[in-house]
Automatic annotation (TrEMBL):
Acyltransferase among keywords: no
Mab-21-like HhH/H2TH-like domain sequence ranges: 297-385
Originating organism: Paramuricea clavata (Red gorgonian)
GO molecular function: ATP binding; metal ion binding; nucleotidyltransferase activity
Pfam families: Mab-21, Mab-21_C
Xref: SMART domains: Mab-21
Keywords: ATP-binding, Magnesium, Metal-binding, Nucleotide-binding, Nucleotidyltransferase, Transferase
Family of this protein: Belongs to the mab-21 family.
InterPro entries listed in its UniProt record: Mab-21-like_nuc_Trfase (IPR046903), Mab-21_HhH/H2TH-like (IPR046906), MAB21L/cGLR (IPR024810)
Protein name from the UniProt record: Uncharacterized protein
Cofactor: Mg(2+)
Amino acid sequence: MAQADTSIVTRLRNAILKICRYPRGCRRVSDIMARYLIPSIPEKEGKEMYKTLGDLYDEHVFNSANNYFDSQVPFQLEDILISGSVNEGTHKINLETESMSDTDFMLILKNIKVTEEDQKKGNLTVKENTAFVNLYLTDEDLIKMWADFLETSSNASYERSTKLSSMKLKERFREKYITYGPIFTPLANEDVEDVDEGPSIAVCSKIPGNAVTNQSKIMHFPLAEFDFVLAIKCDGWPLCAQEWLSRPRCWPNQDIVQAIVECGFHIVCKRSSEGDFRLSYSNAETILIQNLSDLQHKTYRAFKSFVNHYKNEWSSNIKKIICSYHLKTILLWYCEKSDPRDWTEERIVGHLLSLIDDLISALKERNLPMYFMPKYNLMEQMDGTTEVVEKIVELRFNLHSITEAIICEEPNILDWMNFLFNLSPGCLQPFKKGIEKRNFDPKDFLQNIYTTENLYNEYWINAAGKIPTRNDVQGKRAMNILLGPFMKYMDKCCKSMNRIYLNKPVKEEDENEN
């Protein structure tokens, strides 16, 4: 029995350790390139190409989102940031169904910012022991500029009677989105959620037509569902969260805490009876998740995989009981109180079980203090937890079931390679040509890009009767910018492949380059 128990623990440990290392703490595609791809590329030409590609992608995302804002003040876009599970590297991916959890974007408004002085003056008021706030405008120029987005508060003083309306901001964004159309696939069919008191505007994107091809798959997966959150940048740190800065902890260290304060915070458009906006610690959470060790991050993904795999069996109302923010909060509290030196491969199973135990305790007691504001209980109004607790407790002691959940939810590196090759089988054509001709040629790789583009155009003709042209000007400009770095890199790669795989001699000029 002891031997069997050991083997079960070992299998669970291996399942956790085999989880892929996903980019985390990245707010832009260029961040992903800079931190996780470019350092692994030895050739300077490759580094230049991927840096250019990341910058162009960021530019495309910003320009696409900017279409949903006005060209004149005040409703303009300052910045767009990746947020949520994609930013944290905990997004759920199912390669079999070609689906992925929602992609969250934080849209930072231009022409307005909350300063530390605004906090001190009371222009940003917080409902006691909550994360909800009201933003009052007292500057006459700002009041005039944002007049269409203001409402008068009956509860405020004379000096602070004019407050910004989150509902009016979201209504303008939704109106602009519906008018302009889909953000990334211009001819897609999209459902845009009505404006409510929640923080985001959800969009579900579906490509037209019924035919499923490799081209339709890559356009639909993984960016099919989006959550857009309008946010306002705030300097400094919330006055209501000062306790977090100095409380005793094992993690994070003071340098990380200082970096978090310097990055500031946001307020997002989530309305409630307690305030028109909600404090967002997305910047802080990004830095904290980025500073997790690989073992901590894999354990976090394993924890989310366990919950995601079984949650629908726990309750038909599970979305109103457990959300991803609860799991992140549990993880942050646990990391804060655990010694970083205790995070070893041998103890990783124990850490995962402890996270599950903390989830059980929070649900049982209906008490989960917000990480940055412990007086705010995230589970205070929760109902229907008793049955859920019983089912989680039963699974908690079934290590085999926990292991199966992780294996089912987490694609490994071979799964990813097979998926990508099956998704775009044409990517191998330049290599096949090189072997047949006994010469790897950069022009063959460039031609493959044009061939792929033609396949996409063919798909759109069949599915929608026309080719999307909305982004043609930007696309051609981006291709012209990328062409130089791409050809330099492929020329370098082809020379290396000719030398290594085809035993071609190195020319003198190539030796000088190296």
